[in-house]
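Quick log. Single chain, no ligands specified.
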Amino acid sequence: MKRIKYTKYVPGLADELSMEDLLSALSDYFLQSGFESEFSNFYQLGEREQTLDALREAIRNALLNGDLFDEEMRQQLDQMESSEEMEELIDQIIQRMERENYVSIAPPHDPAQRSSVEGRVGENQAEGEVKFEVTDKALDFLGYRALRDLLGSFGKSNFGRHDTRDQATGIEASGSSRTYEFGDTLNLDITATLSSAIQREGLSLPLNIEYSDLQVHQCEYQSSCATVLMLDCSHSMILYGEDRFTPAKKVAMALSQLIRTQYPGDTLNLVLFHDSAEELPLSQLARVRVGPYYTNTREGLRLAQRILARQRKDMKQIVMITDGKPSALTLEDGRIYKNAFGLDPLVVSQTLEEVSKCKRAGIMINTFMLASDYGLVQFVQKVTEMCRGKAYFTTPYTLGEYLLMDYMSRKTKTVH
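-> predicted structure:
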């Protein structure tokens, strides 16, 4: 007779590790935007490459410097710190990440194939080097975690829709009833409808209810909003010893998660502006790095207006995150006019003309400034005055709180 021997399953460290906690520990590595510091745990020489070796080093730092295990597991980890067991553990973790669809691993680079980046042939990847890609599942989780952390910082958990002073017919009744009109949600006020029929015909059976007797509940009218997030990705966002772009990306991911889960009727589009401007799918946001040097605010506003013109929403707004003065302009012939000192009269006048067009189109511009130099403050105050928007003088650490609260509250105020 065939015998089957069962043994007790003993999970290893790779199985005990929480993937969510690991992704949170690696979030700065996955989302970094080109800011390189020798004081960073994930510092790399040269351009950042998503290679398997770099991922191994990032996981090693997270395991050794993070708080991913309990005391007993930590002791086991400390014992293997300088042994081959550590390398085996890291390989097991990477295999699990791939198996659970948090990363996808690409085959080694073939030097005979032509690179798709600016026509270069295999300059950035050595022969036989293995790359990985962060999956949409992992990026979606990072957006959720960023949203949870930001909302948790000011004690909010459940949010409704965008309330207005108007009333409409809907499911939740919060006002008096009124006569039904064509197109209303047929949320009948049965008591008022029967009362109207009885007053007209008296108390008799069968009761004849006519069209004019129909009464419907009223609720608060909740509007929909179309938002374009203009994100400054000029080189100044990683200069001066501070990474401003990575926190901005995290806030944008959190805003996208908030709209998708709490405001499903709203839309969010992303515009990156630097020497020029382009629209980017939100799914690619986490993979973006800081771009060229200048700040073409006017081109970003022009593109944002074209996007909002396609949206049929009650409310339209532009949320602009920037740390620099307008320093570039796209001329009529397509050439880029640049002035590194900023506040060039030609650039400023053309940019403010675009702001004026936003005002005429009923588009509000809310600006979140990550710098406070005198010239930028003056420019943003002028934009705010023209569009009756809001200006937030904030830092990378408080950006998320101000931006999300502004989106949800719609209160007109300036935060200094």
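Residues 274 and 295 are 5 Å apart (CA to CA).
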